[in-house]
Write a structure and sequence with these properties.
Helix content of chain A: 10-25%
Oligomer: heterodimer
Number of strands of chain B: 22
Largest interface: A-B, 32 and 31 residues
Number of domains of chain B: 5
Number of strands of chain A: 5
CATH topology of chain A: Ubiquitin-like (UB roll)
Strand content of chain A: 35-45%
CATH class of chain A: Alpha Beta
Strand order of the largest sheet of chain A: 3-4-5
Chain lengths: 68, 774
């Protein structure tokens, strides 16, 4: 659903010192949940959600779920 | 909301009522629509609108007696629109589309029309379209009746021929000219025979002496035929009568003859269909309109004269005359309310949208945002001819949404958390004046005045203590308006209980509020409490001295607070105080009872930020002068968008700097906390243990604005960074070297981009979302 373009990103997990890689994450709100592919730390699971995604598509989904 | 209530509310909005020209016309010609089409140079549309209600457009456009003009609003300030001349212009200036005889299935019933005048021909025209077989009996050698007496230069014979052609050419209509009907010996066809032969008879014999026909129909004492005014039925169950015969010689009216024909056609059809002749006919014919149209700002303009009355209006003249038409509509509320205008409709439709939104079980609630965008200020009710209050309807809808768990959490969450802060330990205080065990009054400044101008809260409290003997208590807290406005009934009632408890603890003193909204809440919801505002109190006890030099007297436009629109005494006090301070008062077009909201009311600015900004933009452009407000939110919202606005306390106590800046959401909370700390220390000599966060942030003005826009508090950032720095859960952008961290203290996940540096954490960016990561 939120699959990022398969480009390299220069963000690392500072704790594990590992480059983030695409991985499955579940997002949920108001009783609905859906799997998405996001960059995350393969070791500790810390996720990265860029601003464009949070304020763009995710915001739209939030509003849509709120209006359901 | 029940269906019945919906209908009652919808009926209050008269925007969809037809204008006076239409309701005064017996056949309800849509003159406004026709003129609108003319304005758009769409003559064909204009013609079609005319022809929809008038079967003989060429004739009527030349000889109509124009009862429509009696209902024209223009008449109240100059002259009515020359509607008939505009009709004629349209008819003369297009090639009328051929009348289509729609294929209908011919019915078995046969209708006799006696008299080929306008009313009889209208009966034929209307009934043939439903498939009835018609025979027209006309005594003379031509159709048209008395319109044949009108001179050719007024009514060209060709117009008559063209209008009657569809009747002459219709295969279901049989025309028998030179056929006199009656029961006397001269009659070629006897009335009794016709009554026997046909299913229904329409009698439209003009002004002939009805007696001599010896028809055997009942007459009144004056010898006039008895006709039911609603149905045009006579004493004979098969016979209807109308036209000039019914109107009388002195009341000849072409458009009324057509109306009679239409009315008779409806009755005849109903008789044939065996349905009620009388039900649901109230709105046939002329009636007074309930549409309200304001003439405010309309300049008188005389009717456009015709340079050649024989030819009628030229195109320029017609367009000029059409331009005089006010295209009557109400929209009084929409004109003064940015919210109502924003959704491009009017209350009748909005009420329906709200109702539908509440009725949805499965599916998208499209009107949620609209419902949460109203300021609930009640201005619509003030300007509505029927006092329809859209705010009340919307408020009920919000409560219903909350009850059913259908209120979008994001709409009011931020404001409700702000209320939580203002009802929490950091701000709440409820005390007698030091040295007193009772209170004569208690000052309740409210959370927004304290959040915006804590120094004024302190100033006014000291002054009230000095002026009012018997002790003045202090009560810091929130009136609960955010809960009320957002439809959270339980939360609001809970807060009311706290307010009442505090008041009882202080010995039930009079409450003096610093905020107009608090005043309104106390007055509406705790009527047992005696309440007034600091403004009426100050107007009575006089103004305090001040060490700071006050703003020099100037012209100030007063922006009244929308929550006090009914408080005339308060409005007076505000103006009295301004005069005492030497200022000159400028009244805005909408002030006092019809004042506008600043965008805070109803939590509009939280649910629809962009709209609230438009509301402010519109308001601050209403006068050149600096504004005067007496609600902290009004002042701050105007200042934020660049309008120099004084709070009345700014003028009373003076300000350190003429530079105006509105506090952001974080500063408001800090100010409230500081307000309590300062008062405790200065008035009661108590020190509060100040919580100091280990996390120090460095935030530029630009980022502060971004935080304000995204409704993110400095405290939220601190929590994210504290979490990241203690757990080590942070990301790093290797290109920029910045850290990125996220944390969800309650329901919202906050993201921060930051760089640790000497003296604190420098903030680069922040955003949030409500979707949960799991």
């Amino acid at each position: 659903m939120y699959k990022e373009a398969n480009q390299q990103i220069s963000i690392i997990c500072d704790k594990c010192n590992l480059k983030l890689t695409p991985g499955q994450v579940t997002l949920s709100y108001l009783g609905s949940s859906f799997p998405v592919e996001l960059y995350k730390c393969a070791q500790c699971g810390l996720v990265y959600i860029p601003e464009e995604l949070a304020r763009g598509k995710m915001d739209q989904v939030e509003k849509a779920l709120e209006d359901k | 909301m029940e269906q019945k209530e919906l209908r009652e509310l919808e009926a209050k909005c008269i925007q969809e009522e037809p204008p006076g020209c239409t309701t005064n016309c017996p056949v309800h010609v849509d003159a406004r629509g026709l003129i609108e089409a003319l304005n758009n140079k769409d003559f064909k549309k204009g013609y079609n609108l005319f022809q929809q209600t008038v079967p003989f457009p060429r004739i009527i456009s030349r000889i109509c007696d124009q009862p429509c003009r009696k209902g024209c609003k223009r008449k109240e300030i100059d002259e009515s629109i020359n509607i008939n001349a505009l009709e004629r212009f349209i008819v003369d200036n297009i090639e009328p589309p051929p009348v289509k005889n729609l294929p209908v299935r011919a019915k078995a019933e046969k209708i006799a029309v006696i008299g080929g005048g306008l009313s009889g021909l209208t009966v034929a025209y209307e009934l043939v379209r439903k498939g009835y077989n018609i025979v027209i009996f006309e005594a003379t050698e031509v159709l048209g009746g008395s319109i044949r007496d009108i001179p050719e230069n007024v009514l060209p014979r060709q117009a008559i021929e063209d209008d009657f052609a569809p009747i002459k050419n219709n295969s279901l209509i049989n025309i028998r000219l030179n056929t006199l009907v009656g029961n006397h010996r001269d009659a070629e066809t006897t009335f009794d025979n016709i009554c026997n032969e046909f299913d229904v008879v329409y009698l439209g014999v003009g002004t002939r002496e009805i007696d001599s026909l010896e028809l055997g129909l009942e007459c009144d004492s004056n010898g006039n035929l008895k006709v039911d005014p609603v149905t045009l039925a006579t004493s004979h169950p098969k016979v209807f009568a109308g036209g000039s015969l019914y109107l009388g010689n002195d009341n000849k009216s072409p458009i009324n003859s057509i109306y009679q024909g239409k009315k008779a056609a409806i009755s005849i059809d109903r008789l044939m269909q065996k349905t009620s002749l009388t039900s649901n006919r109230e709105r046939e014919g002329p009636y007074p309109t309930t549409l309200y149209t304001s003439l405010k700002g309309v300049k008188p303009e005389k009717q456009v004269p015709m340079s050649d009355s024989g030819k009628g209006y030229s195109i320029e003249e017609a367009l000029q005359e059409a331009n005089r038409c006010l295209l009557c509509e109400c929209l009084e509320c929409v004109k003064v309310c940015e919210f109502l205008a924003h959704y491009r409709s009017y209350p009748k439709r909005y009420v329906r949208e709200v109702y539908n939104n509440l009725s949805i079980v499965m599916g998208i609630h499209h009107a949620n945002k609209m419902i949460n965008s109203c300021s609930l200020c009640g201005l619509c009710e003030e300007v509505c001819p029927n006092n329809l209050n859209m705010g009340q309807i919307i408020h009920e809808a919000r409560k219903e949404m909350v009850r059913r768990g259908k209120m979008p959490p994001s709409a009011h969450d931020f404001a409700l958390r702000d209320m939580e802060f203002s009802t929490g330990e950091k701000f709440v205080l409820n005390r007698h004046q030091p040295g007193f065990r009772t209170s004569k009054g208690v000052f309740f400044p409210g959370c927004q005045l304290s959040g915006s101008s804590p120094q004024h809260v302190s100033g006014i409290y000291r002054y009230l203590c000095e002026k009012i003997s018997g002790g003045v208590g202090l009560s810091l807290g929130c009136c609960g308006a955010p809960a009320l406005w957002s439809g959270r009934e339980e939360l609001f009632k809970e807060n009311l209980k706290t307010l009442e408890k505090n008041w009882v603890e202080l010995g039930k003193p009079k409450i003096i509020t610093g905020c107009p909204t608090c005043y309104r809440v106390f007055k509406d919801w705790l009527p047992q409490i005696d309440v007034e505002t600091i403004w009426t109190a100050l107007d009575e006890v006089g103004l305090p001295e001040t060490d700071v030099s006050r703003t020099a007297p100037k012209r100030l436009a007063v922006h009244d607070a929308c929550t006090t629109r009914q408080e005339a005494e308060l409005h007076n006090s505000i103006r009295n105080i301004l005069r005492k301070l030497g200022h000159t008062i400028v009244e805005l077009d909408t002030s006092c009872q019809t004042t506008e909201c600043c965008g805070f009311g109803g939590l509009m600015m939280f649910a629809n930020r962009d709209l609230a900004k438009q509301v402010v933009d519109r308001r601050i452009q209403e006068a050149e002068e600096d504004y005067l407000a007496y609600c902290a939110m009004c002042r701050d919202n105007f200042v934020k968008q660049g309008k120099r606005t004084y709070h009345l306390l700014d003028l009373i106590f003076g300000v350190d700097s003429e530079e105006q800046k509105a506090p952001d959401f974080s500063q408001r909370r800090e100010n409230r906390a500081r307000c309590k700390q300062t008062l405790l220390k200065e008035i009661w000599g108590e020190d509060m243990v100040e919580e100091t966060s280990k996390i120090k942030l460095i935030i530029t003005d630009e980022i502060r604005e971004l935080l304000e826009d995204r409704m993110i508090l400095v405290d939220d950032l601190k929590q994210v960074i504290e979490h990241a720095e203690t757990t080590g859960n942070r990301l790093k952008n290797m290109e920029t070297g910045r850290y990125i961290a996220y944390y969800k203290p309650a329901v919202v996940t906050y993201w921060v981009e930051y760089t640790p540096q000497e003296g604190g954490f420098l903030i680069h960016n922040a955003y949030s979302h409500r979707l949960e990561i799991s």
